[in-house]
């Protein structure tokens, strides 16, 4: 009854009943935005509707949108496996109004869905509003009957949503659930708001301005609504579990990892099971949307995600490539909602098998080099940049994989030293290329290496990569 698949359907049919067109999830590779690496919110496919640039036959829509947050403005990669609420791939449930309804109906519908359809207890709910948004404040008071203490005014950008330097923007109101004092953490806006006790699960964005240029903001002709609710988070709440990784869908994947490796999914290595389950979803969906692992741009982000999971598979003692074997379990869980997963299944399996087979040729050796290099280091020390670079260049270790590997030992990586080593290697490569002695083959090799970006940095540092037209 409360399974992920039912919750997704319940959300969509609630909004269909309320006059919304059900629209398919768009691809993880944004078709309309070369500056964005991956679709990271439900509104991405509707961007031009908010500004009025594009028209559709409907003015209300609802979606379950595939999202990846592993780069750019929203990068949750390092959190995954270690926080209870972050995935790299997740589904965002959203309802949208394009110049149709605004704050009153948006809040009313949200309140009705979570308290009546989903049955969340009103006493556990609280919300934030942008500090000067008196209208939203009054609406929550009226519609939810909240006392003032449960409507928290926040002055930071957490409650003012913008798409980028320009574009539609506006104040937002986030809905939180208090999971009780058995968990650590304070309410939103407090000093310890990052704990797990108060879980943000829905963000209602009141799109009412357009940032025309960095210094100029004008009112949109027709204010609009954009909301995003994490399916994994609402599922955790409805299933009475405290982590996205304990919901039915993720649990099925985690159990499959345990069965394939013989390692207890609830034992001391549970973070590895979680990372593998999460990264399997991200990898499979990215491949289904046409991304393949490579050394630059989107393909490199995919490779980083895959290899990171593959190191965890190795740590669980998997004797052979593991990830590809889990694909049928994922298809079984999500194939009905996302038929592209079924269509691409053979490609996903082959891509994972090939990548893991290749990476295994250097992984074990790289890990022993890493072990050796940190043997004499202690907590708070940093791995020298040239070692991190050697692991990257010779053993195919993305920098964040090396960081992840050292995380448990609280050892850092000298990132600056890593960058210096990379710059040095590039300069040397160029120098010997321009020298007179080398053969034609070497010339081609260097040219190719530059072109394919074997030493290219863009993909790994997604902040930088996001600004690049891919
Ligand atoms: P958080 O503060 O927890 O990182 P956020 O404020 O960055 O979340 P939004 O950009 O408001 O998230 O996205 C809307 C909703 O999508 C969130 O309320 C949450 O339910 C869900 N969500 C966001 N990031 C993730 C993630 N990495 N994994 C799973 N769900 C997520
Ligand atoms: Mg976030
Ligand atoms: Mg937040
Ligand atoms: Mg939010």
From TrEMBL:
Q: Keyword Membrane on this protein?
A: no
Q: Which residues form the Alanyl-transfer RNA synthetases family profile domain?
A: 2-470
The primary location reported for this protein is cytoplasm
Q: What is its EC number?
A: 6.1.1.7
Q: Which domain of life is it from?
A: Bacteria
Q: Which UniProt keywords apply?
A: Aminoacyl-tRNA synthetase, ATP-binding, Coiled coil, Cytoplasm, Ligase, Metal-binding, Nucleotide-binding, Protein biosynthesis, RNA-binding, tRNA-binding, Zinc
The note describing how and how many cofactors are bound reads: Binds 1 zinc ion per subunit.
What Gene Ontology cellular-component terms does the record carry?
Answer: cytosol
Q: Which reaction does it catalyse?
A: tRNA(Ala) + L-alanine + ATP = L-alanyl-tRNA(Ala) + AMP + diphosphate
Which cofactor does the UniProt annotation name? Zn(2+)
Any keyword Transferase? no
Q: Which GO terms describe its molecular function?
A: alanine-tRNA ligase activity; aminoacyl-tRNA deacylase activity; ATP binding; tRNA binding; zinc ion binding
Q: Where in the cell is it found?
A: Cytoplasm
**Example GO biological process term?**
alanyl-tRNA aminoacylation
Q: What does this protein do?
A: Catalyzes the attachment of alanine to tRNA(Ala) in a two-step reaction: alanine is first activated by ATP to form Ala-AMP and then transferred to the acceptor end of tRNA(Ala). Also edits incorrectly charged Ser-tRNA(Ala) and Gly-tRNA(Ala) via its editing domain.
Q: What is known of its domains?
A: Consists of three domains; the N-terminal catalytic domain, the editing domain and the C-terminal C-Ala domain. The editing domain removes incorrectly charged amino acids, while the C-Ala domain, along with tRNA(Ala), serves as a bridge to cooperatively bring together the editing and aminoacylation centers thus stimulating deacylation of misacylated tRNAs.
Q: Which family does it belong to?
A: Belongs to the class-II aminoacyl-tRNA synthetase family.
Q: What is this protein called?
A: Alanine--tRNA ligase
Q: Which gene encodes it?
A: alaS
Which residues of the whole protein are included?
1 to 470 of 891
């Amino acid at each position: 009854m409360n399974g992920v698949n039912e919750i997704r359907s319940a959300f969509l049919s609630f909004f269909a009943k309320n006059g919304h067109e059900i629209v398919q999830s768009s691809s993880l590779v944004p078709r309309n935005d070369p500056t964005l690496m991956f679709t990271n919110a439900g509104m991405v496919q509707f961007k031009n509707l908010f500004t009025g640039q594009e028209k559709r036959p409907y003015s209300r829509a609802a979606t379950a949108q595939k999202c990846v947050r592993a780069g750019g403005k929203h990068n949750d990669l390092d959190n995954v496996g270690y926080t209870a609420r972050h995935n790299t791939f997740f589904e965002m449930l959203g309802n949208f109004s394009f110049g149709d309804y605004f704050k009153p109906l948006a809040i009313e519908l949200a309140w009705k869905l979570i308290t009546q359809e989903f049955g969340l207890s009103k006493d556990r709910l609280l919300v934030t509003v942008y500090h000067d948004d008196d209208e939203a404040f009054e609406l929550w008071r009226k519609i939810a009957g909240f006392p003032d203490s449960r409507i928290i005014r926040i002055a930071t950008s957490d409650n003012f949503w913008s798409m980028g330097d320009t574009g539609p923007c506006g104040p937002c109101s986030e809905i939180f659930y208090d999971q009780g004092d058995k968990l650590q953490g304070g309410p939103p806006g407090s000093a310890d708001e990052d704990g797990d006790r108060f879980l943000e699960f829905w963000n209602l964005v009141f799109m009412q301005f357009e940032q025309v240029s960095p210094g100029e903001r004008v009112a949109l002709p027709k204010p609009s609504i954009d909301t995003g609710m994490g399916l994994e988070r609402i599922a955790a709440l409805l299933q009475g579990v405290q982590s996205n990784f304990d919901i039915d869908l993720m649990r099925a994947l985690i159990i499959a990892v345990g069965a394939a490796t013989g390692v207890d999914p609830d034992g001391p290595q549970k973070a590895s099971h979680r990372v593998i389950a999460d990264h399997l979803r991200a990898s499979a969906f990215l491949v289904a949307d046409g991304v393949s692992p490579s050394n630059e741009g989107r393909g490199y982000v995919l490779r980083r995600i895959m290899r990171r999971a593959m190191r965890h598979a190795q740590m669980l003692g998997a004797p052979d490539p593991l990830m590809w074997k889990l694909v049928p379990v994922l298809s079984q869980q999500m194939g009905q909602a996302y038929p592209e997963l079924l269509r691409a299944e053979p490609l996903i399996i082959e891509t994972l098998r090939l990548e893991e087979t290749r990476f295994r040729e250097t992984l074990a050796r790289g890990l022993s080099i890493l072990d050796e290099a940190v043997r004499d280091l202690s907590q708070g020390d940093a791995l020298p940049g040239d070692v991190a670079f050697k692991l990257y260049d010779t053993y195919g270790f993305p920098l964040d994989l090396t960081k992840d590997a050292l995380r448990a030992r609280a050892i850092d990586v000298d990132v600056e030293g890593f960058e210096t080593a990379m710059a040095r290697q590039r300069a040397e490569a160029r120098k010997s290329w321009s020298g007179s002695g080398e053969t034609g083959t070497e010339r081609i090799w260097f040219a190719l290496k530059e072109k394919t970006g074997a030493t290219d940095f863009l993909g790994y540092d997604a902040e930088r990569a996001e600004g690049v037209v891919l």
